[in-house]
């Protein structure tokens, strides 16, 4: 489910120009294809997480997965802009319900450290690499079988996931709605209680910083490949392959074993250091950079760092939550991810644009000005990661 949600966002992003042409979106209206989804998704994460604590994570997960699948079908058969926007809003509601309780369910299903490390590695891989994979799929789907399938592809995947969820997931009783009739107030009270845990607070801040740097890195790097090195959309997506491949190797195989041996705190520090190194390395990429020399190895190091850091940070955050608050803690962590991705992309894009504009006014050529703008953004992203590194060293205790 998590991979389907992440893929949906990036696949749709690649299909936006075709959507605008086929459904007659205005330039301003086109933004609502993304905004209608994000408003519903981000706005409901915490409430959905608390609802999972009250009535059981499986019920909320299955309901969200079913709604997301049905809404994807509605988007895929849409013949007007209004229907597509309505479908995207319902996708956001379903996505929030399902994804808000995923981490809490993982903690409950895999309590042993080794099993939990492997499960978190799989979750981390889907979250971190799904966007890169989506760029590739988006280009292929849009150029071959049409934008409708950017949504319709979710339907068979969702139905299969529903079948497995019903058969494999155990139903928890939950605390009962009587424990939180006022769901909003109950969620807010529980959040105040959870933020008393320094480890949970710091770990969620580190997650936010990681996603701010990661999504901003991806956005800036895609622009560098297209606007400076001259790649087309499909080549850009393929160029990112070293990142998800290395992420898969680390998060699905190597990192879980190392996390059991050395603990999530140490692995988080190693992952953050690798990620910061990749960002600083890429900031030195020239205007006429070579993919083999200046891009591919950086993406590999970045994928390794993220594959180690994200599952470790999530494990630290979830370990600090009481079992009765697991759903809300899961929703809180997902909120940190979404907030980091949105803020990071906005901040880094603004820095890049301002630097490029300044360099152009100073008389620099267009390609050099663009490269300088992206370089500043990559350095700023490295600053996000460095802040996470310092917070981890100073405020998360050794176990």
What does the model show?
It is a single chain. The longest helix has 36 residues. The mean pLDDT is 86. The protein has 399 residues and is mainly α. It has one domain: Growth Hormone, Chain: A, CATH 1.20.1250.20. Pfam families: MFS_1. This is MFS transporter.
Give the key terms.
0% strand, mainly alpha, transport, Growth Hormone, Chain: A, globular, single chain, 399 residues, cell membrane
Strand content: under 5%
Arithmetic mean of pLDDT: 86
**Fourth CATH level, the homologous superfamily:** MFS general substrate transporter like domains
> Based on DSSP secondary structure assignment, what is the total number of beta strands?
0
* CATH top level label: Mainly Alpha
* Share of residues in helices: over 70%
Largest beta-sheet characterization:
none
What would you say about this model in short?
The chain is mainly α.
Give me the secondary-structure topology.
Elements: H1 2-23, H2 27-55, H3 57-76, H4 81-100, H5 102-109, H6 113-144, H7 148-152, H8 154-168, H9 183-194, H10 198-228, H11 233-239, H12 242-262, H13 264-282, H14 291-319, H15 326-361, H16 366-395
Helix pairs in contact: 1-2, 1-6, 2-3, 2-4, 2-9, 2-15, 3-4, 3-8, 5-6, 5-15, 6-11, 6-12, 6-14, 10-14, 10-15, 10-16, 12-13, 12-14, 13-14, 13-16, 15-16
GO molecular function: transmembrane transporter activity
Subcellular location: Cell membrane
Transmembrane segments: 25-48, 60-83, 89-110, 122-141, 147-165, 202-225, 237-255, 267-283, 295-318, 339-356, 376-396
């Amino acid at each position: 489910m998590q991979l389907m949600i992440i893929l949906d966002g990036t696949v749709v992003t690649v299909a936006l120009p075709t959507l605008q042409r086929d459904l007659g979106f205005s330039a301003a209206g086109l933004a609502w294809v993304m905004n209608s989804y994000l408003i519903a998704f981000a706005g409901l994460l915490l409430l959905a997480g608390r609802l999972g604590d009250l009535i059981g994570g499986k019920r909320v997960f299955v309901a969200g997965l079913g709604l997301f699948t049905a809404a994807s079908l509605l988007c895929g058969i849409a013949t007007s802009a209004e229907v597509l926007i309505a479908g995207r809003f319902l996708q956001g509601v379903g996505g929030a319900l399902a994804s808000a309780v995923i981490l809490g369910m993982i903690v409950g299903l895999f309590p042993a450290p080794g099993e939990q490390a492997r499960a978190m590695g799989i979750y981390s891989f889907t979250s971190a690499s799904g966007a890169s994979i989506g760029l590739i799929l988006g280009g292929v789907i849009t150029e071959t079988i049409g934008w409708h399938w950017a949504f319709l592809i979710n339907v068979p995947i969702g139905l299969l996931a529903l079948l497995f969820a019903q058969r494999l997931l155990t139903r928890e009783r939950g605390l009962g709605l009587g424990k939180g009739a006022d769901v909003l107030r109950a969620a807010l009270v529980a959040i105040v209680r959870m933020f008393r845990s320094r480890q949970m607070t710091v770990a969620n801040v580190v997650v936010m910083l990681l996603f701010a740097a990661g999504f901003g890195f991806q956005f800036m790097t895609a622009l560098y490949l297209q606007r400076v090195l001259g790649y087309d959309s499909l080549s850009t997506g393929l160029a990112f392959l070293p990142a998800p491949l290395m992420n898969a190797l680390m998060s699905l195989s190597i990192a879980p074993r190392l996390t059991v041996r050395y603990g999530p705190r140490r692995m988080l520090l190693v992952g953050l250091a690798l990620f910061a190194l990749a960002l600083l390395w890429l900031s030195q990429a020239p205007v006429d950079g070579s993919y083999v020399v200046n891009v591919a190895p950086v993406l590999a190091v970045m994928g390794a760092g993220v594959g180690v850091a994200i599952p470790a940070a999530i494990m630290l955050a979830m370990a600090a939550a009481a079992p009765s608050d697991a759903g809300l803690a899961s929703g809180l962590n997902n909120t940190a991810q979404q907030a980091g991705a949105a803020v990071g992309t906005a901040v880094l894009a603004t820095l890049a644009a301002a630097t490029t504009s300044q360099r152009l006014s100073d008389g620099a050529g267009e390609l050099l000005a663009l490269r300088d703008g992206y370089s500043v953004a990559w350095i700023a992203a490295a600053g996000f990661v460095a802040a996470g590194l310092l917070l981890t060293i100073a405020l998360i205790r050794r176990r």
